[in-house]
Design brief:
8-stranded mixed β-sheet, 287 residues, alpha+beta, 2,3-Dihydroxybiphenyl 1,2-Dioxygenase, domain 1
């Protein structure tokens, strides 16, 4: 199997600019607003080969519904936001969309029709460039709430920006993504096929899969509360994308900035935690 690292995480929010302001207060650089052809809008936090996609429904959005084997990115996130804000989709890197699709089918995972699109991206110098993506959607049969796909960048030289990847807080990369679920063992077969990683580490706290870019951690609500000092309530027993753990940040500087701006933080075994209640449904962690 070909191992796939994290490409990005979709973070669904109701107020895009308010969420971006929250992230900027933590010392991150956030890209200008961009719009998808179907009307969802985003702002990004670019790191070293990984990004957070703050996503909201744009005014006048014309969201296509899912039908037959066609997955609807817009409809999925629209419906997600009817319940809550937070991490809605896990996205892995792609070198070959056709190979991803074949690998998922070989592993017995559901697949959907190929989907591609292009949009304009604003540059830090005020100009714009075309970016394009090929998405290969799949799903975890044991997870009805979260979305999964791989993302192939058609014009990576237009997408990634050293200016956007530079942050006042010193964060450079993704450390891990934490998914909270009642039974981590129920999901390890899916995640192994999704990431292309057979090796995993199981402990009393859960399961860790090391990908080429960031770790995936599956843990129970009890383990998560112990490590991150935050309670996660699972809706209808469904898994929750609960936290992003960063790498390379200046923790003391971040903590001071949060204190100056009145942003709640907690000191936990895994690091300085900005809890989901203070950050639009997704906890942000700085070791």
């Amino acid at each position: 199997m070909t191992a796939r690292g994290f490409d990005h995480l979709v973070w669904a929010v109701t107020d895009l600019d308010a969420a971006a302001a929250c992230v900027e207060a933590l010392g991150f650089t956030v890209t200008p607003r961009a719009r998808h052809p179907w009307g969802t809008e985003n702002r990004l936090v670019q790191l070293d080969g990984f990004f957070l996609e703050l996503l909201a429904m744009g005014e006048g959005a014309d969201i296509p519904e899912a039908k037959d084997d066609a997955f609807s990115f817009g409809a999925f996130n629209r419906d997600f936001l009817k319940t809550r804000e937070g991490g809605s989709m896990l996205v892995l890197e792609s070198r070959d969309p056709d190979a991803d699709r074949a690998a998922f089918e070989h592993a017995g995972l559901p697949v959907f029709a190929p989907f591609s699109f292009e949009r304009s991206q604003a540059l830090s110098d005020g100009g714009t460039r075309k970016v394009g993506f090929d998405l290969t959607f799949t799903r975890d049969p044991e997870d009805a709430d979260n979305g999964f796909f791989t993302c192939f960048h058609r014009f990576p030289e237009n997408f990634w920006s050293s200016t956007y990847q530079t942050h006042r807080n010193g964060v450079r990369a993704l450390g891990s993504v934490v998914v909270v679920c009642d039974e981590p063992a129920m999901h390890h077969i899916f995640y192994s096929a999704f990431t292309g990683e057979r090796a995993m580490r199981a402990t009393s706290l859960g399961i860790t899969i090391a990908t080429p870019r960031g770790d995936l951690k599956l843990m129970t609500p009890h383990a998560y509360e112990r490590l991150f000092h935050e309670t996660v309530e699972l809706i209808d027993g469904q898994p929750r994308i609960s936290a992003v753990v960063f790498s390379g940040g200046e923790r003391l500087r971040i903590e001071a900035a949060c204190g100056d701006r009145g942003v709640e933080t907690r000191s936990a075994p895994e690091g300085l935690v900005v809890p989901s209640s203070a950050s639009f449904g997704l906890s942000l962690v700085f070791p």
